[in-house]
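ok, trying the design again with the full structure, not the truncated one.
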């Protein structure tokens, strides 16, 4: 599947182009996803965030949310050790939610993630922390 770079009438930003280019280099277009392809899923997440009025950085995070893998699909396109490549493409503010979401143990976190003070287990390190409310709100998917 080719990437549809349309943005519902909004201008495509340089960072969006860089994000799509990174996803293409990492093989996203060749990755199957339940219900279709990974590009289709990533674009749907970005579009949902845009429809909800999310700021552009969070929309970029939604577009890139599967780069490091997720709890539901642990085989990532790019190892977490290469976060710097995501930062270079989308910027620090969009990259932070991407790595946070990748570390999310969804079974333990999602039901209570919106509640301040709830422990958050990191699926990579096994450590538990209490992320600030802003970090919790920025989870893209």
């Amino acid at each position: 599947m080719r990437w549809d770079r349309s943005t519902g009438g909004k201008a495509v930003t340089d960072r969006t182009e860089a994000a799509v280019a990174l996803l293409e280099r990492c093989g996203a277009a060749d990755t199957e996803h339940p219900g279709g392809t990974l590009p289709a899923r990533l674009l749907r997440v970005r579009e949902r965030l845009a429809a909800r009025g999310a700021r552009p950085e969070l929309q970029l995070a939604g577009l890139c949310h599967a780069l490091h893998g997720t709890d539901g699909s642990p085989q990532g396109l790019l190892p977490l050790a290469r976060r710097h490549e995501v930062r270079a493409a989308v910027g620090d503010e969009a990259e932070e939610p991407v790595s946070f979401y990748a570390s999310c143990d969804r079974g333990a976190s999602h039901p209570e993630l919106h509640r301040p003070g709830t422990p958050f287990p990191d699926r990579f390190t096994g450590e538990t922390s209490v992320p600030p409310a802003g970090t919790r709100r920025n989870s893209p998917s």
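Keeping the full-length input from now on. The first strand starts at residue 32 and ends at 33.
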